[in-house]
Give the backbone structure.
Amino acid sequence: MGKVENRHLYIANHTERKLKKMTNIEVKSLLEAGVHFGHLTRKWNPNMAPYIYMERNGIHIINLYKTAAKIEEATKALHKIAASGRKILFVATKKQAKGIVSEKAAAANMPYITERWPGGMLTNFVTIRKAVKKMAAVDRMKKDGTFLTLSKKERLQVDRMRAKLEKNLGSISDMTRLPGALFVVDIKREHIAIKEAQKLNIPIFAMVDTNSDPREVDYVIPANDDASKSIDKILSVVSEAVIEGLSERKKGKEQEEKAAQKTEEATAEKAEAKAEAPVVAKEEVAPAKEAAPVEEAPKEEAKEEAKAAPTKKATTKKAAAKKPAAKKTAAKKKKEDTPEGDA
């Protein structure tokens, strides 16, 4: 075991310089929040060895440079999911994390589970949605006034049912479909949620302590999941990334709407221009047609004269040719008429 630990320590020290360059999150702030404290060495999970820096006083110390790198990787992925418009379900039922998770998730406008995990929350989502619809039905009854028509006992029963549903499912009332991702604090405690997400191929983001198996999670954040300061620090970074993704989506929608308005305006202008163009053309063509006969009349006369000129020349030539022929015929007739004696 000692050789294995020394080998992992060597790997951790060797990669420390590279990780320093990669991370934007301050390691000092993580250290102050106590993110580096792991569990007792006898409770460790060997699969967490790559994320352990050293052992001190029987407790494993987590490598914060690796934690910072993993936080950055996870926040980028969460930012993309939030920007795509899908929901991220936050799960934490332990006392230290309840208040922090509910506060951060509500700030990011995301669903969360801080009470008992309802079995089949993901795998039997249709039934859970029916329970949420019951709450909405009770609210409608209270608005319509039909709630007052019930007997006192029935009203008490309905109120109790509504309070119970609100406690367990009130935070997911806006979640109309399966979430795009799951963020879990303490995967050992929330093992049912992890199994359901794995079955449905939902990406899992989690704070993983030294006593847990990181292979069950898609995006591991090696950190202390027992201290409230540590949970607060990690969740504040995660919620900021989610809020940024949502704001980016909002800006993208606004830009799309503006672009759509511009295209509509452009098409409207083109349609107006096309509608006006034929009217203007007709107005321009009409006077041109009226003026055309006045200008073309002399041209047509000139053309007719030009056509008539060669015909006149031809007739004059024929007439000139006919005159000598007529003279010759007249001379022949005179000769014939005159008697030979006279000659």
About this structure: The chain is about 65% helix and 10% strand. The CA atoms of residues 302 and 308 lie 10 Å apart.
